[in-house]
């Protein structure tokens, strides 16, 4: 997953094409999609960000439908895809109405996860239809714009820019993680997700950055006025009324080097072999009848000797109940014995069965937001996040995952000195940190 620049242009007001709105609610926001309905118009549309008066973009805190009316100020214009490389088939608007930045970060990762799942579902659906139709597989491309109107911590451009850069860095580092991915149709498809951002003060430099730029200009001797104007217009094109994140997903079919024809030939050969077996007189119905006969003979056979044997075992070892150990119970037992920071009065345990990186980031930051909402001051407390199915065979991947969480936390102004991240993992070199399942530890310092 690579980071790319948002392909949204500031071209001024344009007439609104005919469209229909379909709204769907989300757990942390409001969603609205726009689709073209005129059959004579092309299906692709170009998103144009139009600066609006501040009052027309005033979004209430209650998350009502007025938010959707405000997001409709982003205009569309139909363009032919051959002439416009920035055209999009569909753009969806969502609104993160939360005020806590940890919850907002969790919401951003949720949008990334949903985009990945959408791309994977497209690949599986196309693979399932390939046998029924002779059409070539199609590429899916969709864009989502997430507006964040109520979070005061990202009202300035520099903190917001640092946050989005740290999120993209975490997504890039995930390419080296050892992930246990489930097999199935559509896994060969390439699902790429790009994440960019817009801001009312996009491109504004801090005094330190301005001083560095002036020094470079003095050293260079010449100033390219045209290039400076180009940079100014580029920054203006990414200025939106509110801080926003753009998530774009593209699902591309795998390259066809003749593998599909070989698979089709193998399937045809298997069908022919099954037909020959049925022609020889042995069918699946005959096999089912034989299985039914064996089941009946096993049920009628008396096994008194076997029963006496197991009864004798029960008397020798006593009647004991076998209780299955869950990963959470295993983690709690190990922490109780090996972690001196554990306090049975204040420590908390949470668990998730996620396998994917974006979903793990989402769970961690949503858990942190939940803990902060319950009690803002947790100085000296320890929280344990148990992730039994997330990189269970790679301690290096889990440590890098924890390191990227620390980088994102440092980009959050209210959290950078509030919590420390550490890990326990079954594959750690030191025995003192070899837990039965991966555990992420949050140590609260404030």
TrEMBL record:
<feature type="region of interest" description="Disordered">
    <location>
        <begin position="1"/>
        <end position="69"/>
    </location>
</feature>
<keyword id="KW-0175">Coiled coil</keyword>
<feature type="compositionally biased region" description="Polar residues">
    <location>
        <begin position="22"/>
        <end position="31"/>
    </location>
</feature>
<feature type="coiled-coil region">
    <location>
        <begin position="258"/>
        <end position="285"/>
    </location>
</feature>
<protein>
    <submittedName>
        <fullName>Uncharacterized protein</fullName>
    </submittedName>
</protein>
């Amino acid at each position: 997953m690579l980071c790319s620049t948002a392909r949204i242009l500031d071209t001024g007001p344009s007439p609104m094409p005919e469209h229909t709105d379909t709204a769907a609610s989300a757990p942390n926001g409001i969603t609205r999609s726009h689709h073209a309905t005129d059959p004579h118009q092309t299906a692709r549309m170009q998103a144009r960000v139009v600066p609006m008066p501040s009052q027309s973009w005033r979004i209430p805190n209650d998350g009502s439908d007025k938010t959707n009316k405000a997001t409709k100020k982003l205009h569309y214009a139909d363009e032919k895809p051959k002439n416009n490389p920035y055209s999009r088939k569909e753009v969806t608007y969502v609104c993160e109405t939360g005020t806590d930045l940890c919850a907002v970060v969790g919401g951003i990762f949720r949008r990334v996860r949903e985009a990945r799942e959408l791309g994977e579902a497209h690949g599986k659906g196309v693979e399932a239809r390939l046998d029924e139709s002779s059409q070539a597989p199609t590429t899916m491309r969709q864009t989502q714009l997430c507006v964040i109107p109520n979070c005061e911590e990202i009202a300035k451009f520099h903190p917001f820019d640092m946050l989005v850069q740290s999120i993209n860095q975490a997504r890039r580092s995930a390419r080296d993680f050892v992930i246990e991915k489930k097999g199935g149709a559509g896994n060969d498809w390439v699902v790429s997700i790009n994440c960019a951002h817009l801001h009312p003060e996009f491109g504004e430099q801090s005094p330190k950055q301005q001083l560095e730029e002036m020094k470079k200009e003095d050293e260079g001797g010449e100033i390219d006025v045209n290039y400076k104007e180009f940079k100014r217009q580029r920054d203006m094109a990414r200025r939106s009324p509110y801080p926003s994140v753009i998530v774009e997903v593209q699902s591309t079919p795998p390259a066809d080097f003749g593998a599909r024809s070989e698979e089709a030939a193998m399937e045809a050969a298997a069908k022919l072999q099954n037909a020959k077996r049925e022609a020889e007189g042995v069918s699946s119905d005959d096999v089912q009848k034989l299985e039914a006969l064996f089941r009946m003979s096993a049920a009628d056979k008396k096994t008194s000797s076997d029963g006496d044997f197991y009864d004798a075992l029960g008397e020798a070892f006593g009647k004991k109940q076998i209780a299955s150990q869950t990963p959470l119970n295993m983690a709690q037992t190990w922490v109780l014995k090996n972690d001196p920071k554990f306090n049975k009065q204040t420590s908390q345990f949470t668990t998730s069965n996620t396998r994917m990186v974006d979903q793990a980031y989402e769970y961690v930051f949503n858990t942190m937001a939940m803990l902060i909402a319950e009690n803002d001051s947790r100085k000296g407390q320890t929280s344990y996040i148990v992730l039994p199915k997330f990189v269970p065979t790679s301690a290096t991947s889990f440590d890098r995952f924890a390191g990227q969480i620390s980088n994102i936390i440092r980009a959050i102004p209210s959290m950078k000195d509030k919590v420390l991240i550490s890990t326990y993992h079954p594959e750690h070199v030191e025995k003192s940190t070899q837990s039965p399942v991966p555990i992420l530890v949050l140590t609260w310092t404030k």
